[in-house]
Design goal:
The chain has helices spanning about 10-25, 40-50, 75-105, 125-145, 160-165, 170-180, 190-200; strands spanning about 5, 25-30, 55-60, 105-110, 150-155, 210-215. It is an alpha/beta fold.
Length: about 220
Amino acid sequence: MHTALVTGASRGIGAAIAKKLASDGCEVITPTRAELDLASDKSIEAYLSMLEQPVDILVNDAGINRIAVMENVQSQDLTDTLQINLIAPFRLAQFLAPQMIARQFGRIVNISSVWSVISRAGRISYTMSKTAINGMTRSLAVELAPYNILVNAVAPGYVMTDLTRQNNSVAELEKISQAIPARRLAEPQEIANVVAFLCSEHNTYLTGQIIVVDGGYTCL
């Protein structure tokens, strides 16, 4: 049985990923924010030092998206976004990779975003962080491939999560749907299915890729 650590698993895509990996037979660790505060390097170090079992699979799902156009971006918001969306995932991978190397098996999946491929007004901090995690994914893939550790990123487009429903009216969701060639938003489970394959032993050769799951949105 493989052990998977999934951040951001309290809701949405992260919750779907954790559920899918568990159903596939993994032991899944889903730390709460109180247990693992990704905004704090000290919290990350403390949490990792307390882990008793080796981790074979790391899914970096947790992230923040503080919307602001360039002139309104606050220094602290930019720092927080880069810390949680980029630096924390790197620290987790950096700590767990040696264990994976020792066992000659590992899977790391970073949850990126369609906004790392395209962008829109107000997403500058988020786009910066997710574009950087794509680069991190490729670099880690090159370094870790000799040890049977495969590193990929999944970049979802619009996903029908509780947060999406809260932040958009029915009319707004319909407008978004019509802008997507598939004419609908993704369900969290559809993202989880892609992540689960990348984490599995069925994936034996695919690494360093940014897999966009957006119903064709970025093809327009």
